[in-house]
Amino acid sequence: MAAPTTSGTARGVAKARDIESMLPPELRLVDDPYAAAMAGWRTPRWLLRCSGHGLRQAISDALTCPGYVQLMVARTRLFDDEVVRACAPTAPGEARTPCTQLLILGAGFCTRGSRLPIPPHVRVYEVDQPSVQAAKRRLMAEAQRAARKSERAASASGRIVYLPLDLSEAALDAALRAHPGYDPAAPTVVTVEGLTQYMPAEAVAATLEALGRATGPGSRLVASYVDARVHTDPAAACGEGYPAHALARVAAFAERANEPWLSSWPPPPPGGRAAMGPFGRLLAAHGRWRAERDESAGEANEAFFAPIGRRIPPSSLCMMERFVVAAKGDSGGGGFGLDGGDTTE
Ligand SMILES: C[S@@+](CC[C@H](N)C(=O)[O-])C[C@H]1O[C@@H](n2cnc3c(N)ncnc32)[C@H](O)[C@@H]1O
């Protein structure tokens, strides 16, 4: 299948971030000043502003699936928090190595490298397919010129290194090592956000393997994956009263955008440790990543929306993806040697 010239799915995520950014500071989980430029809205900006957050979220619910915007927003916030924490200087007595590199795989229209408060010495690397990355760079340059962004944003964007690469075809570690500034021994925080479902399971495993070779001790990894039950038993993957059939609309959208879902993994067994779940075992077997958490959107709902009075009811809670936080470690999550990947085509 030919690579898309830009990514419709990446635009969808940017749209979700733009919708969330309309909320007042005390109510929003994410503020992405570049999301509007990245989203490629066809609707005039003035009309978008008039329509307001509630209406735009309701339109998204109808066109994608209920709770899609909130799922993307919770995912963004979880990844943001992990990246900021990983790069922050350590507190006295804290046993952690601050990461000095941020590696964003399948970056799409993610603006994390420009908008997060991470120390200036942290180097940022973005990887995506050449055509998508070219579109992102053009849009980002336009957005920054138009908005004359703050000094922080301008200097942050200047430190981003763009690596155009199809991860299903080329070796990631070779591409990173070929870049003179990249240090494969440095503690690195890696994000694999909204990417695994677009790659065959074997390519995901190979990428994790490459990451193991291209990151130093103390590295961290945050990833998302599609819950395999979306394909096999959608109702089981959803909250009570959620219209499970609506999930098929999201997969169909990806298919139409020429970005079909190729892989998914079942969640860990109820009450089981993250490292024991199929994705946790994949991480352990490829690159020796130790999964610390493997969370559902339900857990993200409690962590992020509930404390600010925005708890999503089960009937609107989209749970098609899960989020995993892992550390680079030799323990290998208990020495499992199985992939556990379910490839759904
Ligand atoms: C749903 S978007 C997510 C973008 C971004 N991570 C975010 O969350 O906003 C998926 C991204 O993965 C990229 N992608 C898909 N397959 C890829 C591959 N084989 N190699 C590199 N990037 C890929 C797409 O181009 C797209 O930008």
From TrEMBL:
<dbReference type="Pfam" id="PF04072">
    <property type="entry name" value="LCM"/>
</dbReference>
<keyword id="KW-0489">Methyltransferase</keyword>
<comment type="similarity">
    <text>Belongs to the UPF0677 family.</text>
</comment>
<dbReference type="InterPro" id="IPR007213">
    <property type="entry name" value="Ppm1/Ppm2/Tcmp"/>
</dbReference>
<protein>
    <submittedName>
        <fullName>Uncharacterized protein</fullName>
    </submittedName>
</protein>
<dbReference type="GO" id="GO:0008168">
    <property type="term" value="F:methyltransferase activity"/>
</dbReference>
<keyword id="KW-0808">Transferase</keyword>
<dbReference type="GO" id="GO:0032259">
    <property type="term" value="P:methylation"/>
</dbReference>
<dbReference type="InterPro" id="IPR011610">
    <property type="entry name" value="SAM_mthyl_Trfase_ML2640-like"/>
</dbReference>
<dbReference type="InterPro" id="IPR029063">
    <property type="entry name" value="SAM-dependent_MTases_sf"/>
</dbReference>
